[in-house]
Amino acid sequence: MGTRAWALLCVLCGTIFLEGIDVAMMAVAIPAIRSDLGLATDTAAWVMSGYVLGYAGFTLLGGRAADLLGRRRMFLLWLTVFLAFSGLGGLATEGWMLVVARFVTGVAAAFMTPAALSLITTSYAEGPRRNKALLVFAGTGAAGFSLGLVIGGLLTELGWRWVFFAPVLLAAALLVAAVRLVPRQDGPSARRRGFDLPGVITAVGAMLLAAYTVVRLEHGLHDWPLTVVSGLAALVLAGAFVVVERRCPDPLVRLGILRQGAVVRADLGALLFLGAFFGFQFVVTLYLQEVRGWSPLQTAVALIVMGVDAVLAPTLTPRLVARFGNAQVIVGGFVLAVIAYGLFLPVGMDWSYAAMFPTLFLSGLAFALAYGPLTIAATDGVAGSEQGLAGGLLTTATQFGSAIGIAAVTAVYGLASTGSGPEATLSAFRVALTVPVVLVVLGTLISLVSAREARRAARRASQVSSVSASHTSANPAQRSGGISSWK
């Protein structure tokens, strides 16, 4: 790739890095924010959940808006909104201000991230070039999260408001560069095509209620009727959305994309993989701080090895994809994740860091092998006019996956907690650690199906090529460039 192509990729990757460090730093800073502002437990929880609700609730709409209203326009607009509300969060003096700021920041990320992903898939030619760009994009996002844990710990020492202000500075630099580098490739306007307002209302309503239901799962059986009602309401609205889309001449989401098995399997695989990854990281963080008594900064430094994918995703993974194929590399990533999380199941009260290191390193390596190729698979073969939609579906899957993973381990931990004291806490953690293992086992099964389908497709392509070659060798006129009878 040329200099300008790399510069554009750096800007687009910068936004996923920005999103990653923003989430990670907030996770580290919450205790300090709660103490300084005197927040109630539920308000502090909603500072995190508000972001998830905004992100997961609007990602599908965000991806389609990039296709309909223009990728460049959506990218620049929502990067600006992200910058503004991150800054407002740093100025907050009340809990509700923080919750509102985080919710709107999540909505901004829901529009900005799919736009960035679709800009990559439409700016770089399909094949090795695009694959390289997507692998760099995926690795940068993971690096943002891993480094955000450490950066968040350091900034929190200076004052928690810097956790909000630091992303403002990075977002401002990215915005200035993006204005110059992001190409003008706006798609057809919504006005010319017609805008599916009923589809927007039902989609956003269903996604918001689904996200709220997932967040509610963290409470286990507490107020379970509310969780059930919100889940049922989400299903009703999802059904209404399908009915609306089938009847709309210009639907928000062309339902036919959900019949592309490879795309659906990639999205489901990403959901399971991210759910396991973040669920595991959440449990390990609690183990190190609550059982072992490590500080947030010590914990962040210990977990930074999981960010090894930032180095391996753009260097090792492209070579493996070229050598073995995308589907096989995804299978390898899932298998490594099963091994990594399985090794941590017998975690002890006084495990040394050396005992934890294999799991932490292997989980980062698994991320490098699986996530980038899943991103490729989720957008491969999709028409250019629907790349934003494909990116929105993938981002929706990853956001719901991370939320489901954390909610599931939290709920299982709560149900398994039958006593007080370090031993009871450790026992509950061990039970919760089975959740990531189950998720990646399911993901392995799905990835094996994709690998089998990829082998079948390769055999069919080989057979067609052989037949074509035999026709060519049997037809002298065709060999010399003449017109064959079937051309």
UniProtKB/TrEMBL annotation:
Pfam families, alphabetized: MFS_1 (PF07690)
Keyword Membrane: yes
Disordered: region residues: 465-487
Keyword Transmembrane helix in annotation: yes
Protein keywords: Antibiotic resistance, Cell membrane, Membrane, Transmembrane, Transmembrane helix, Transport
Ranges of biased composition (kind: Low complexity): 465-474
Positions of transmembrane segments: 45-63, 75-93, 99-121, 133-156, 162-182, 194-212, 224-244, 264-288, 300-317, 329-349, 355-377, 389-416, 428-451
InterPro entries linked to this entry: MFS (IPR011701), MFS_dom (IPR020846), MFS_trans_sf (IPR036259)
Membrane topology: Multi-pass membrane protein
Compositionally biased tracts (Polar residues): 475-487
Subcellular location: Cell membrane
Domain Major facilitator superfamily (MFS) profile span(s) in chain numbering: 8-455
Designated name of the protein: MFS family permease
Organism: Streptomyces africanus
